[in-house]
Amino acid sequence: MSENEAVAGLALVRARIGEAEKQAGRPAGSVLLVAVSKTHEAATIRSVIEAGQRVFGENKVQEAKAKWPALRGDHPEIELRLIGPLQSNKAGEAVALFDVIETVDREKIARELGKEMEKQGRRPRLYVQVNTGEEAQKAGIAPGEAVAFVERCRSEYGLSIEGLMCIPPADENPGPHFALLEKLARQAGLSKLSMGMSGDYETAIGFGATSVRVGSAIFGARETH
């Protein structure tokens, strides 16, 4: 995809977010757009930064490490979010690199993040990922355990959890999954909901998403190398 197409995609997504906010009776600007830049080249990402986008999501620690230091050197105000599964041996790098980690999904990760934050004196904001569809192949804590897990993150690992995140099953109506995540967040006393991707972000806004993670609607299909 060309840089101009990415900028046009960004403008369209922003307009649709604004429309969805209005339809849901929510204030303009209440939903944060996370542009998912995984697998895309720095030049394309740069054009989207120049069009005013400041929050980006990446799936892999290694890929983000290769791309983002240079981009952030020019734009230190950028917020970078990890939205893909985190391996415990990458916790240190993730704490050093990301401002927000959205995929805290098990005790081992919570423990490692707690240790690394203490060590580095850096505290990225954290979300717990909930596997709302209870899919075997997907990361995330089971819905029935989510509220207790948030509590343990706070009490046992000294983590401050900002919100919940989910990725509904691809072949199901996402609405009930978004409704479930919103209910769990309320029970856990959390106000932030990261939910909704390119195909369903407008639906997610209707269910209370505070941030949406949009990649292909901005950047086009993933670039593979």
Summed up:
It is built from nine helices and eight strands.
Unreliable stretches (pLDDT < 50, length at least 5) are: none
Termini gap: 14 Å
Mean pLDDT: 96
Shape, per Cα inertia axes: globular
Quaternary organisation of the protein chains: single chain
**Rg, please?**
17 Å
Please provide a written account of the structure.
With 225 residues, the protein is α/β, with parallel strands linked by helices. The protein contains nine helices and eight strands. Helices cover 45% and strands 16% of the residues. An eight-stranded parallel beta sheet has the order 7-6-5-4-3-2-1-8. The model has no long low-confidence stretch (mean pLDDT 96).
List keywords for this structure.
225 residues, alpha/beta, 9 helices, 8 strands, 16% strand
Question: Layout of helices and strands, plus pairs?
Answer:
Elements: H1 3-23, E1 32-36, H2 42-50, E2 55-58, H3 61-74, E3 79-82, H4 91-97, E4 100-104, H5 107-120, E5 125-130, H6 143-155, E6 161-166, H7 175-188, E7 192-194, H8 201-206, E8 211-214, H9 216-219
Parallel strand pairs: 1-2, 1-8, 2-3, 3-4, 4-5, 5-6, 6-7
Helix pairs in contact: 1-2, 4-5, 6-7
